[in-house]
Amino acid sequence: MARYSALKVRIFQTCRLRFRYQYVAKDTDRIRPRLRPADTAGSLVHRILCDFYTKLRPEQRTEEGLIELFETGWNALSAGYHRIPGVEQYHEASIHQLRNYIRCFDYTAEPYMVEPYIQVDIQPGITLFGRLDRLDENPDGSLHIIDYKGGSLLGDVDSGQLAFYAVMAEIKFDSRVSRASFWYLDDGSVWTTELSEMDKEQARTELMATIDEMARTDEFPPTVAPHCASCPFLHGCASRSEISQVRQQDGW
Questions:
Q1: CA 110 to chain centroid
Q2: Which of 20, 30, 239, 241 sits most deeply, having the most CB atoms within 10 A of its CB?
């Protein structure tokens, strides 16, 4: 059984070399990933936004209640994490994101589901899996996928993740997904797309083509671009010298 997540597909499409390090490399040439302190803070923010709806009663869902949940989670992080130089900036950035959530979004709305884990067979021998941040139900009974993002809405949006989730959710819940959104926590901006049946069929066709390519590929060239700066395999990447040169040249 071959299993695919939205992250696995996105990494394959972004950089084949990272894909090899993360999913293909054997023990003899495996590189241990190094997560950034910001990743831990981001994961905590996502968990707290889930707890806000699953652990607090509606009357407790206030800005103060949300921040209290976060502070409890932050204090429970390891002592080693708290000793990282500059870690307080991630604390302050997370507080800013959570206050923005209260100020910019309808936090009183009751989600249909928060952080549902989905695993479905898209065809025999091929399984899709992943965890959605949130599902809302529209007035007409269709579903709205919402994904929280830690940054701001800048430039073009890669909506492939949302299309992947839409394919999964329709199979899992046997319900129509009509809308998908990114909610950006840094500035409260929103990116939304309406999903027609043609859109979803095209997404499914493109996804299956990518999965087929993933199964057949045996070449893993690097893609040197700004995403390299946050790659957890940068410290051991075979292309790190080239990456360093391009970063200095292009200023990222």
A1: 22
A2: 20
What is the torsional sign of CA 72, 75, 81, 84?
positive
DSSP structure string for 111-166: -SEES-EEEEEEETTEEEEEE-SEEEE-TTS-EEEEEEESS---S----HHHHHHH
Q: What six digits make up the tokens of 231?
A: 């790659």
Describe the chain by its helix, strand, coil percentages, rounded to 5: 50, 15, 30
Going by the DSSP 8-state scheme, the letter that residue 10 receives in this structure is H
Distance in angstroms (rounded) separating the CA atoms of residues 58 and 151: 27
Q: What is the pTM of this model?
A: 0.92
Read off the pLDDT band of 155 (50, 70, 90).
confident
Report the distance separating Cα 16 and Cα 223, nearest Å: 7
Confidence of residue 30 (pLDDT cuts 50, 70, 90): confident
Q: How far apart are CA 70 and CA 163, in angstroms?
A: 30
At 174-221, the pLDDT tens digits run: 999 999 999 999 999 999 999 999 999 999 999 999 999 999 999 999
